[in-house]
Amino acid sequence: MRLATALQILAGTNKQLPSRSVFLACGFSPLHLQTYLTAHLQGAHPESRVIVATGLYGDLLGNVARIPPGASAAVVIEWSDLDPRLGFRSLGGWTSSSTEDILGSVSSRLDNLAGQLRKASESSTLTIVLPGTPMAPVSFTPPWMADRLSLGVRRFVAEFAERIMEPDRIRILNSDDLARFAGESFQLKSELENGFPYSLGYADFLAQRIASSLDGPQPKKGLITDLDDTLWAGILGEDGIDGIHWTLEGHSQLHGLYQQMLTSLSESGILLAVASKNDPGVVEDAFSKLTLLVKQELLFPRVANWGRKSKSVKAILKAWNIGPQDVVFVDDSSAELEEVRTAFPELTCIQFKGTDASYFHAMLLELRSLFGKVRLREEDAIRASSIRIAEQLRDATENAVSENDLLAGLHATISVTMEKKFDAGRALDLINKTNQFNMNGRRYELMDWIALESQPGRLLLVVEYVDKFGSLGKISVLSGVRSGNTFVVDAWVMSCRAFARRIEYAILDFLLRKFDLQTIELVYERTARNSPFGEFLQQVCERTEPSPVKIERGDFVGKCPALFHEISQDH
Amino acid sequence: MWENAPLYFTKLVKTIEVQMSDHQDRLQRCFSLVFPGISTNEIRDASVASIPDWDSIANINLLCLIEEEFEIEIAAPDLESLTSFPLILRYLETRHA
């Protein structure tokens, strides 16, 4: 982004919009980094006016202490913050005798900084940028040779980063990723004249990375892969099982690496499926005989036919019950990609090129970028199996005499946990990424969420579900304020994996009984994607307006269908 | 050759004029991005003395924008003399002459 464009974005922002504040703590003059960061965040949040506040020049430690409680903040460290002699604005001497002194000073400054960052992270979410510009040539060694000072300083920085990292509260930008910037990151002239060390291009690049971290990544949820010349090299229908391969010896290692990546994605809860133009019998026969690097049961569903790929993709999206905007499709054929892209413009399509290693390397990074998660949760491990469970449930539904018979036969148990802590765990995660059964679509910043904890009468319920087909894990979160025999619910979501089991009814039933309530008020707001919640409201009280929608105990009892869940409660 | 001289000269002057006006418009755009509150007329006479918002930060932004827009690098010794719209315009014309 050009500086002119960034300034245009800032100038064009409506001053009447509600503000969203972010703090940028650095020891150098924030200048263009502040401008670019504001512009990138503004682009991602057109509904608010982004304000990036900064501290004082030359006082990184003090600026970290100035981070307002509750604010998201970026802390950008440069070498001169650790010892001015490592930068270019100080004339403190580059004598060889200063090595020990510099190392001592770096170590102690990093200790102080770690303490200050931990303190700040108690009330703020932080993104840390480690020093990225070249260190001043302090040592007597030639530039191609590593020296004791720079090795020592870098070791201290690496240890410091490892010590403070805490994915939910203190995120550290990957220095390897920042090093991919093509061009000069450092500009000595700007550093000397303005106290700003970065080139405009790098300031833009860094701001983009910081903005992504501050916003928290919204990873895609599923990947649909082609088989021939994608998951493996060769054409199954022509070459047969013995003719397909994915190894170094077969010059098809890229396919093996791709399979390895799919396994890794699956471990982080990404759904995998196959859409292939093939004979379904041949494909299933191959899967039963081959030992792929990605376990065959992780690829579900596997849709093989001679029809259009977009039809197969449609069937997979239906089985997964997620939208195309959350899915990536990988295929070696540009014609197939185009056909799918035309049918699902929101779906991300990536071409697989099994003979272009550098393209492939970039593709692996792209997949990590699209699916990368800040941390793994328990639910990630069971997501794929819960899709298979849903499929089994659908089969059972088709064979069941009645819905009641079916649900009674599930032997379902609902576990309700009354959470005391509002933290960055599964509850917030579920609220911030559920779209369909989401009462009002509200998203919460971590600090706003934590602040709810101190509200009198505020309750947080986390619901887990298990039946004879297996566990779905934590699938619903509900929060609100109880006052006497009324409960005002302002946050309620349920994973789409848990639909069609009457769990939502069981939750309301549990609340009415547990707290002896007369009324539950649901702060409902219609969004572009929460029609399942609206339909539920129609069934329970035949209206969706005015908000909050009141559900009286007597009315609910009359409308509630038969429930067969066993409820267990955990404090 | 002499017969063609006036035509050649006219064309040259026209090119310079277009270039000057082009410089002026582009410089004006840089000013309006850094000082969004001032009018076009005010920009043409703008100087450090006449614009209260023209502080050190605005100055850095303005000069970086000019470097970006005109694809030049302003040498450190020149920075101090670039304190008004007319002075910067003259500097740019000299650089592009």
Question: What does this molecule look like?
Answer:
The complex is a heterodimer of chains A (about 575) and B (about 100). With about 575 residues, chain A is an alpha/beta fold. Chain A contains 22 helices and 18 strands. In chain A, the strands form three sheets. In chain A, strands 11, 12, 13, 14, 15, 16, 17 and 18 form an eight-stranded mixed beta sheet that branches. Chain B is globular.
Provide a short characterization of the protein structure.
The complex is a heterodimer of chains A (571) and B (97). By secondary structure, chain A is of the alpha/beta class.
Mean pLDDT of chain A: 91
Largest sheet of chain B: none
Extended strand count of chain A? 18
| Helix proportion of chain B | 55-70%
Task: Write out key terms for the chains shown.
heterodimer; A: 571 residues; alpha/beta; 8-stranded mixed sheet; 5-stranded parallel sheet; 18 strands; 42% helix; B: 97 residues; mainly alpha; disordered N terminus
Spell out the blueprint of helices and strands.
The complex is a heterodimer of chains A (571) and B (97).
Chain A: H1 3-11, E1 19-26, H2 31-44, E2 49-54, H3 60-65, E3 72-76, H4 79-82, H5 99-121, E4 125-129, H6 148-164, E5 170-172, H7 175-178, H8 188-194, H9 200-215, E6 222-225, H10 236-239, H11 253-267, E7 271-277, H12 280-289, E8 299-305, H13 309-320, E9 327-331, H14 334-343, E10 348-351, H15 357-371, H16 378-399, H17 403-408, E11 413-418, H18 426-433, E12 437-438, H19 446-452, E13 458-467, E14 470-483, E15 486-494, H20 503-514, E16 519-522, H21 531-541, E17 549-552, H22 553-559, E18 566-570
Helix pairs in contact in A: 1-2, 2-9, 5-6, 11-15
Chain B: H1 5-34, H2 40-44, H3 56-70, H4 76-79, H5 85-96
